[in-house]
């Protein structure tokens, strides 16, 4: 089952802005994660405890990334999901830190979100390990 399309790092995105503009618009920690591939300290995101119905969207551009129904408690201290929304995210191979990992980014603006690992729960067996600061939660209305 293919949940996301493979991309090359050089791919262009629907939303592209000069780095200076992202730096001006985003809070420093969100800028560090989304635009500089940073990682937030585990357990620091209020989204870890978010259990309401709704949608997790990109903190950079508002693009819908994950439905709350696919969130699970991974015990890692980072918000974790077993599947992204359709057309929500893209992936690239990340060979930094002497590891080969699959990097996950917003399909709309290319902002770095986290990584995906093959040790998640059913039905996909995947664990999307996300930085909470790279996302915003929009509760379902009504
Ligand atoms: Zn985005």
UniProtKB/TrEMBL annotation:
Residues 19-140 form the MsrB domain. It catalyses: L-methionyl-[protein] + [thioredoxin]-disulfide + H2O = L-methionyl-(R)-S-oxide-[protein] + [thioredoxin]-dithiol. Its EC number is 1.8.4.12. The keyword Lipid metabolism does not apply. SUPFAM superfamilies: Mss4-like. GO terms for molecular function: peptide-methionine (R)-S-oxide reductase activity. It comes from the Bacteria. Residues 1-21 are annotated as: Disordered. InterPro entries: Met_Sox_Rdtase_MsrB, Met_Sox_Rdtase_MsrB_dom, Mss4-like_sf. PANTHER family: METHIONINE SULFOXIDE REDUCTASE, PEPTIDE-METHIONINE (R)-S-OXIDE REDUCTASE. This is peptide-methionine (R)-S-oxide reductase. The lineage of its organism: Bacteria, Pseudomonadati, Pseudomonadota, Alphaproteobacteria, Acetobacterales.
């Amino acid at each position: 089952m293919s949940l996301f399309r493979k991309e090359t790092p050089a791919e262009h995105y629907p939303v592209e802005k000069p780095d200076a503009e992202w730096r001006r618009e985003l809070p420093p920690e969100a800028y560090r994660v989304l635009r500089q591939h940073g990682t937030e300290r585990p357990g620091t995101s209020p989204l870890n405890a978010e259990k309401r119905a709704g949608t997790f969207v990109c903190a950079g551009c508002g693009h819908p990334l994950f439905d709350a129904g696919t969130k699970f408690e991974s015990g890692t201290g980072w918000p974790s999901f077993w599947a992204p929304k359709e057309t929500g995210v893209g992936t690239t191979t990340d060979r930094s830190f002497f590891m080969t990992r699959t990097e996950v980014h917003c399909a709309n603006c290319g902002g770095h979100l986290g990584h995906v690992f093959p040790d998640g729960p059913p039905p996909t067996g995947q664990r999307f390990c996300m930085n909470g600061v790279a996302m915003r939660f929009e509760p379902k209305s009504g």
